[in-house]
Design a protein that fits this description.
This protein has helices at about 5-15, 20-50, 55-65. It has about 70 residues and is an all-alpha fold.
């Protein structure tokens, strides 16, 4: 799944008039996609260790606790 440049542009702009270039928006999207993949992998692994077939909020929070992000 890709995070679109348009989505990044909306996030950056917020309620301001600040714009972001296409290449900068693409780079932010790339970084966020990598981070999301790491979080998802951790959460799935933890859910499996707990014998669940569903990722729960606690699995995401555990990533935050163990990785400090």
């Amino acid at each position: 799944m890709k995070i679109s440049k348009a989505t990044i542009k909306k996030i950056v702009a917020g309620n301001t008039r600040i714009k972001i270039s296409d290449d900068a928006a693409a780079k932010i999207a790339e970084v966020l996609e990598r981070k999301a993949k790491k979080i998802a992998e951790h959460a799935v692994s933890r859910a499996k260790k707990k014998n669940r077939n569903i990722v729960m909020l606690e699995d995401i929070e555990d990533y935050k606790l163990t990785h400090g992000d």
